[in-house]
Amino acid sequence: MTATHTTDSAVVAKRVDSGEADTTEIHDLARAAGYDVVGEITQTRTEDPAYHLGEGKVTRLANTVAREGARTVIFDNQLGPYQTYNIGNELPTGVTVMDRFRLILEIFGQRAQTRKAQLQVELAELRYELPRAEAKASLAKRDERPGFMGLGEYDESREEDIKKQIANIRDELESIEETERHRRKQRRESGFDLVALAGYTNAGKSTLLRRLAEDLEVDQNEDLHPDLDTTAESEDRLFTTLGTTTRRAAVGKRDVLVTDTVGFIGDLPHWLVESFKSTLDSVYRADLVLLVVDISESVQEIREKLVTSHDTLYERNEAPIVTVLNKTDTVDDEEIERKREALSALAPNPVAVSAAEGLNIEALAERIDLELPDYERERLVLPMTDETMSVVSWIHDHAHVETVDYGDEVVIEFEARPAIVEQSRSKAGDLVGASA
């Protein structure tokens, strides 16, 4: 008897060159996209140029799809356009073939809330589609089977349309990025240090953001920073955060803005990473990066993720990186020490925390304070005027004030970012000049 499933039912497939195929992540990704996985096919062999899998395994795949009534086949591999077409020809009519990256784009599309995130998803989708549009054009010239199994319908003008859309989206993203660059500059001029959370999806970045920022509400600076979010979702699912979420946190005497960004995921092609590079600008332009990893994973998994993360970050990042070993509540102390030692070359002097339980967060805050650019100390002597009170108030808002003495003159001592110290000196100079 043939099984019946919803139109969201899918069969997953994976090929590996050697060893045993691990389908845990592709199952998680499929579920994150809303698919009901009803079967899987795996194979260990070198890649077949025509079908990716061997022809016999493709036949087994087709039989599984027919038996389970699945409407989608999801490969945990990157498929070329012609491989997609050839596999589609072997499957029951109407079955969609997608590879790992098409699935990831589908998830991104479901989660994109902001205009920037939506544009980045659209850009990635167009970059994914362009070589497939070119393949369809080639197949059409050869008068191959209509329908372009797995590739979709052919439109003669589609290639040029895609190229124009890519150019238009790049222009709009550049405009958004310029606004964000201006906003980061304003934030630094307002006295904020910028800390970015980076790491793989599901490492617990959003939970850590909430933990670091729980003592302060963003409405304290609502007028200066209307884009700041008061919450960051914390869920055990992939790609909860697609755009960026920024909240205020108090770290020692500093005012810090912490930004959570889209999670990394392994084995992504350059065109996909490039499509989301403006999201990663929040990481690249930060004063400090917290690279969050899940300590409950195996040493090999963590090591691979650290290597990929460092490759991504070191390309353009200028800030120091502190590795945060998260989810310590899920492992014992002995395992934490063993993994800390095994990872010491990639993660020297990491901080181990549990964001979910709030364990060792104070030590992380101290480390953040230590790693951020040093504050400068300043002592200003100001004339006693009405305008001076405005300057004193401004320094209170943008720096850590230690003492203020009011007499014939106002003497204020404080610590602040170098840019704030420079601005305060300029304001003091204006006061002295005006009172002369």
Automatic annotation (TrEMBL):
Residues bound to GTP: 199-206, 260-263, 326-329
Described function: GTPase that associates with the 50S ribosomal subunit and may have a role during protein synthesis or ribosome biogenesis.
Location of the Hflx-type G domain: 193-376
UniProt-listed HAMAP family: GTPase_HflX
Protein keywords: Coiled coil, Cytoplasm, GTP-binding, Magnesium, Metal-binding, Nucleotide-binding
Quaternary structure and interacting proteins, as annotated: Monomer. Associates with the 50S ribosomal subunit.
Binding site for Mg(2+): S206, T241
Record's protein name: GTPase HflX
MF term (GO), any: metal ion binding
Localisation: Cytoplasm
Record-stated family: Belongs to the TRAFAC class OBG-HflX-like GTPase superfamily. HflX GTPase family.
GO cellular component term, pick one: cytoplasm
PROSITE patterns hit by this protein: G_HFLX
Requisite cofactors: Mg(2+)
Coiled coil, from the record: 109-189
Gene name for this UniProt entry: hflX
Main location: cytoplasm
